[in-house]
Amino acid sequence: MSFSERVYRLCRAIPEGKVTTYKILAEKLGVRAYRAVGNALNRNPYAPEVPCHRVVGGDGSLVGFAHGLVKKRALLRKEGIRFRGFRIIELDKVLYRF
DNA sequence: TATTTGACCAAGA
DNA sequence: ATCTTGGCCAAAT
């Protein structure tokens, strides 16, 4: 089971309308490879089965998305998440901590 | 085998 | 609040 596969497995557990952060995912995997988590998601081969759009930066800002941040924000908005620019409002209320 | 590349993050200025 | 810097580590090159 590779590192990337473990990342994908965790991602599947994020419920609709909630988000998590790269850091939380990494910590859940017992590592500090925050960046490696992002890397794995970037090359996510299981989209959209794995909801990688529900992973954001530690401060609630959208950091990246294979198909563009605008697309990512649109998806999250559809799930009820609100934004100010590319930053989530009230992050603590929609943050999924497992 | 070695180097480079990020969808990161914490701390300092 | 915003910007820069240094450290992080799996994967791709």
Task: Describe the overall structure.
By secondary structure, the protein is mainly alpha-helical. It has a single domain, classed as Orthogonal Bundle (Arc Repressor Mutant, subunit A), CATH 1.10.10. The chain is 40% helix and 8% strand. It contains five helices and four strands. A two-stranded parallel ribbon has the order 1-2. Strands 3-4 form a two-stranded antiparallel sheet. Strand 3 and strand 4 form a beta hairpin. The two termini are 21 Å apart. The model has no long low-confidence stretch (mean pLDDT 95).
Supply database-style keywords.
single chain; 98 residues; mainly alpha; Arc Repressor Mutant, subunit A; two-stranded parallel ribbon; two-stranded antiparallel sheet; DNA-binding
SSE arrangement:
Layout lengths: L2 H9 L8 E2 H7 L5 H9 L12 E2 L12 H10 L4 E2 L2 E2 L2 H4 L4
Parallel strand pairs: 1-2
Antiparallel strand pairs: 3-4
The structure holds a DNA duplex (13 and 13 nucleotides).
